[in-house]
Specification:
The chain is of the alpha/beta class. It contains ten helices and twelve strands. It has one domain: NAD(P)-binding Rossmann-like Domain (Rossmann fold), CATH 3.40.50. Helix content is 42%, strand content 17%. Strand 4, helix 4 and strand 5 form a beta-alpha-beta unit. The model has no long low-confidence stretch (mean pLDDT 97). Bound molecules: NADP nicotinamide-adenine-dinucleotide phosphate.
Length: 290
């Protein structure tokens, strides 16, 4: 099968590039904005007319959650909604399975239990609203799709909370981190492997499904930061503060854990515990000096 990964220079896209170095079952093609701008419908049409693709994994997105609240709003709408609509329509007309990534931020965070795929979306941030609107464009396009909702992504590639904490842990004596937002951290490498399992389980058969995937275990950001310092060997104190005290622009959900029963039943996946994956990622960061 020929798999195209768009947005391949981001965290998740880079994990797929890493995996493609040893995965021999599929033919991989990788594009990012310089080689295939997904906001350019004509460019997508041209690419797909020249290249035979069976599955498109869309890793391209606008992911700057706070910036999306003001100066990034237009870009978020363009990349997370309109471009996703272009991709979905092109996948429909070329008989391509679209695998798209969405987010826990489509929920408002008021649930008393982990969110299932059937829970109603109620996004409160521009980022969350655009990501949910993108999901809806896919559904209404009529294309074959798998939407994977994930949360709190980190990787040895790109910029993320883990790498920021490792840097601050060397520079500062303490950091303030919120202790009232609870969720599931997710190593992008584990997410990429979960998507591969979905592909192996489904092949290119017609499918229209949403799956949740994150690492196992629910924690607040402050505990995550403490674990990063502990594993990363940083002598830095985590001072717990509330979301209100932190005062960021976007109103993030206070609770956004994802229920993974559906993906477990569909693929038989054993989901790694968040701390075990964090240890592996930090080891990779230290080895690569990324
Ligand atoms: N990060 C998280 O915590 C998180 C949590 C839940 C869900 N997700 C979702 O998971 C997916 C992967 O996230 P990620 O963290 O890997 O994202 P990322 O690191 O921000 O990567 C996104 C990639 O898409 C590229 N891109 C932007 N506009 C494009 C365009 N018009 N055409 C082609 N490529 C374009 C970006 O290039 P530039 O860097 O040059 O803009 C970047 O390489 C996204 O759908 C995201 O919404 C992320």
């Amino acid at each position: 099968m020929n798999i195209l990964v768009t947005g391949c220079n981001g965290q998740l896209g880079s994990e797929f590039r890493k995996i493609s170095n040893y995965e021999e079952e599929h033919n991989w093609s990788f594009t990012d904005i310089d080689t295939l701008d997904i906001c350019n419908n004509k460019a997508i049409e041209d690419y797909l007319s020249k290249n035979k693709i069976d599955i498109c994994i869309n890793c391209a997105a606008y992911t700057a959650v706070d910036k999306a609240e003001d100066e990034g709003k237009e870009s978020a709408e363009l990349i997370n909604v309109r471009a996703v609509e272009y991709l979905a329509n092109n996948c429909k007309s070329n008989n391509i399975l679209l695998i798209h990534i969405s987010t826990d931020y489509i929920f408002d965070g008021t649930s008393a239990r982990a969110y299932t795929e059937n829970d109603n979306a109620c996004p409160e941030t521009v980022y969350g609203k655009t990501k949910y609107a993108g999901e809806q464009k896919i559904v209404s396009s009529g294309c074959s799709y798998i939407i994977v909702r994930t949360s709190w992504l980190y990787s040895s590639f790109g910029n993320n909370f883990v790498k920021t904490m490792l840097r601050l842990g060397s520079e500062r004596q303490y950091v303030n981190v919120v202790n009232d937002q609870n969720g599931n951290p997710t190593w992008a490498y584990d997410l990429a492997n979960a998507i591969l399992l979905l592909i192996r389980r489904n092949g290119v058969k017609e499918i229209k499904e949403v799956f949740n995937f994150s690492n196992d275990g629910i924690i607040p950001w402050s505990n995550f930061a403490e674990a990063i310092f502990h594993i990363g060997g940083k002598n830095c104190e985590v001072r717990s503060i509330s979301t209100e005290e932190y005062g960021s622009k976007a109103k993030r959900p206070l609770f956004s854990a994802l229920d993974k029963t559906k993906i477990k039943e569909f693929t038989g996946i054993k989901i790694p515990f968040w701390r075990d994956s964090l240890i592996k990622c930090i080891e990779e960061i230290n080895n690569n000096n990324n």
